[in-house]
Specification:
Number of domains: 1
InterPro entries: RibonucZ/Hydroxyglut_hydro (IPR036866)
Organism: Aequoribacter fuscus
Radius of gyration: 17 Å
GO molecular function, one term: 3'-tRNA processing endoribonuclease activity
Protein name: Ribonuclease Z
Shape: globular
Number of helices: 6
CATH architecture: 4-Layer Sandwich
Strand order of the largest sheet: 1-2-3-4-5-6-7
Amino acid sequence: MQANSFDKPREGASLVLIETPDLKIETFAVDHSPVDPAVGYKFTYKGRTTLITGDTVKSDTIIQHSKGIDLLVHEALAPNLVGLMHKTAIKKDMTVLAKVTSDILDYHASPMDAAETAKEAGVKHLLYYHIVPPLVAPGQKQLFLNGAQDVFENYTIGQDGVLFSLPAGSSDVNLVQTGL
């Protein structure tokens, strides 16, 4: 493999990175300010499409590029859980953690944001990834979702090793492996 650099596309536009008869890979700018540049990727292979948001807030750009896709892989940060971490960091005089848990809320989408995006774009399945904070305790998944499951029901909370199959010539979105 070899990395190839490219210029970040202008807001709302996409840039085709690879195009063959079976495969098309596109990139588009996402809002992750103050971190810039930031991009998402859309993969179309034999008529099946997956979009990976990259780190971003909820945006019309994600909705636009996700219209009717098979699998939306959307990052998600749970503000309710990060808020608890923030309060604890303040109580324990952990200034660096308090600063981080305050700042990161401004440039990440929540599970609700991702669910609303998936619903509005009409995607078939939503895979949450880049989960913040990590979900390690029983019952934490419901706290993470915080009602998002009622907005968009076809979702999977990602973890290492999750695997989907999007068979060519089909509309199936198959969860093959839930994790390692």
